[in-house]
Amino acid sequence: MSIELSWAKKSLVLLAAFAAMLFDGFELGLMPVASLSVTQDLLGGSYTASLGGEWFASYTAGLMLGAAVGGIFLGQVGDTFGRARALGISIIFYSLFAGLGAFVTTPLQMLVLRFMVGLGVGGVWPNAVALVAECWPDKSRPIVAGLMGAALNGGILLLSQIAQHWHITPDSWRWIFHLAGVPAVLGILIFFFLPDSPKWIAFKLNERTVVAHESGFSLLLLFKPPLLILTLTGIILGTVPLVGAWAASKWMIPWADKLGGVIDPGYKAVTQGWWAVGAVLGSFFGAQIASFLGRRLSYFIFSLGSTTLTLLLFLVTKPLEESFLPIVLAQGFVATLFFGWLPLYLPALFPIRVRAAGSGISYNVGRFVTAIGVFFAGTLFVFLGGSYSHIGAICGLIYLLGAISIWLIPLSKNDDLAC
User: Fold this and answer.
1) What is the pTM of this model?
2) H-helix or E-strand containing 347?
3) Domain boundaries, given as residue ranges, for the chain
4) Residue 169 three-state SS
5) DSSP structural state of residue 348
6) C-alpha dist (Å) from residue 241 to 62, 183, 236, 367, 405
7) How far apart are CA 162 and CA 168, in angstroms?
8) In this predicted model, what pLDDT tens digit does every residue of 44-82 receive, in sequence order?
9) Which CATH class is domain 7-405?
């Protein structure tokens, strides 16, 4: 039996995890809004629109690859040494290397740093979600899962509001990377002072039992029966929304910068802000809708809705048109309903001894696939003559895979967290 945290300590855990995810979202939203300005400055006279799109894809792929590695490795750290410590390490990683981005002199240096930022970004999600899920009772899970999803996109919204008032341009962009380094203070505080999951502590105290003794290395356990089928299920469910978000949706920001930036340097931030407002609402209410409709039907509806709105965004409207920003908001809402779904159901797939690692594998293998997808999307972008509308629409079809796969994979009826 684990000792339940007091309400004050549970609230502190939720607040710390929320802040960790908020600044995680800030890091995720940084390059979509800053990429073209960064690349124009670093390349100087050799900059072209096609090169701008290629480097945007490369920065995104590097971040996703780092997030995949970091999520898996730091998920394992969370299962071994504690969720709170791993969460603190993750924040320090993404803040430190984001801050160093202010000093780069070449796009390649920025690419390396985006990979390093990704290590921390990837580690935050599995540890924050596992920590909150284990500290709060099952009846609170839809609300706290929604808050976790909303926090991530709240960080993107925060970034957009800052960039809307203080423009990121080829002559002035390094300041935003200095600002991105500040959350390291939060990471240090969490590492030393945040209470850990009572369920995890109880498990560690009991690890002399036969089950714990035979558990071995949790990453290996996840790819052996009976956990293998759960791991594969989680990977499929986590991959579709990630690929859709990064290989498709994010092209709207440099697209808005290209067409609207000449008239208004802040238009890209305005676009990201409209998307982020929809995303904050979508990721919060995604958990509530999923809890009401059930995991299969909700995931299916989210997939169809995301496909439809992504195609509308890239094929029916374009930046500066009156319909563009409302569709951006609607697409942000529907396409991020998944990110309320995922923290509600992914931790519930796995027993406590491998929960952070299992959630990290599920979420971050999707980032491996996303990194590959974004890399090829960059190549396809050049092949399509630098057409943002075509690349966004083609990549948006990934959501159809979610609508099909949710009916083919095995899911248990029990939504309670495994012990």
Assistant:
1) 0.77
2) none
3) 7-405
4) strand
5) G
6) 18, 27, 10, 10, 12
7) 10
8) 999 998 899 889 989 988 998 998 899 888 988 988 899
9) mainly alpha
